[in-house]
Amino acid sequence: MPTEERDLDYGGALDGFRGILAAVPAAIVITAKDGVILFANQSAHLLFGYADNELDGAPLAWLVPPEARDQHRDLEVRFFDHPVGGAMGRVRDLYGVRKGGERIPIEIHLAPLALARVQLTVASISDLRDRRRLEAAVESASVQEQCRLGAELHDSLGQQLTTIGLLVSSLATKSRLLCPTITDELRRVLSLTREVNDSTRRLARDMTPLGPGGGDLEGALARLATQVQHGGLKGYFGAQGTSESRIPRNVAHQLFRIAQEATSNVIKHAAATAVEIELMVSASHIRLSVTDDGRGLQSLADGSGMGLNTMKHRAGLIGATLSIVRRASGGTQVSCVVPHSPWDHLKDSEE
Ligand SMILES: Nc1ncnc2c1ncn2[C@@H]1O[C@H](COP(=O)(O)OP(=O)(O)OP(=O)(O)O)[C@@H](O)[C@H]1O
Ligand SMILES: [Mg+2]
Known about the structure:
Blueprint: H1 3-22, E1 27-31, E2 37-40, H2 42-48, H3 69-81, E3 86-87, E4 94-97, E5 103-115, E6 118-127, H4 129-178, H5 183-207, H6 217-227, E7 234-240, H7 249-270, E8 274-281, E9 285-292, H8 307-317, E10 321-326, E11 332-339
Parallel strand pairs: 7-8
Antiparallel strand pairs: 1-2, 1-6, 3-5, 4-5, 5-6, 8-9, 9-11, 10-11
Helix pairs in contact: 4-5, 6-7, 7-8
Bound molecules: adenosine-5'-triphosphate and magnesium ion (MG).
Residues 261, 264-265, 305, 307 line the site of magnesium ion (MG).
């Protein structure tokens, strides 16, 4: 729609709202069908780092990450054709882009607005940075606690069970001379003690897959690639740039759990012959990918399993983007990209 027509149609009507919307603490952005911002209140300017009125008349694409612009445009057009209000951020991990390029997690509630017979969209945008920081801090504390419990299980219960095993073994040996009738029972106690000890150590290892310091993501992923091998499935691991920078513990933990779920999905669903786990660390981001050559993901619509959602949730906790795609050459690729962002330090609040 040409600018003059737009002004003629609802320019005056919009003026009536400006005063009210300026006083609203939520960030409000009103757009037309052509993807142009007609009005953004002061909170929206602040949220996205623009000076007063700088956004009025700007393309909405300024606020959307480059990789999401096409998808966002489709959603907008669909919304104009079938305007049903609701929250966009609740159903997907949404990010906005600030003026300097910083990506911020947001939630968007859309509502249709008919003004002077023209259909507009009102977006109320919530800043999720504080919520994400809090979630990251809680998650980070629970990861830390889990590592502590794992270490405790290993060092305390595991060692005690080893000592009990040694004592029972020595008793069983002595009993052969002194009281042979109980030797068999002592051997059974010994075997049970060893089983419980093995289970305890396995549990401890599962709770601290990244080692006692929590930092050996590369080693843990390499072990995972070996563990997935069974039947005709081969596992490979490759790393790049990992020696140059340290990956924060919480980021490493979430990436490992994502890799674990992605590889478990390959075993369960893909009927693949090979799975490759790759970890790449560059100056701007960390990228984890799990690629298989199996039957390929059929559809994401089902949603009955938990795995895909928990992977997305984990990615959100560390400000990462998760994508799951069916590869043109066959198979599925799960990739998770963690950008180094200005709130990096909050990804690892325990350190
Ligand atoms: N690598 C893959 N190859 C083929 N299909 C896959 C792959 N990964 C996931 N899928 C499909 O996506 C669906 C959802 O996966 P998701 O991990 O959410 O659930 P699940 O593995 O079935 O159950 P859960 O993870 O809760 O144990 C799967 O049921 C499967 O159909
Ligand atoms: Mg799964």
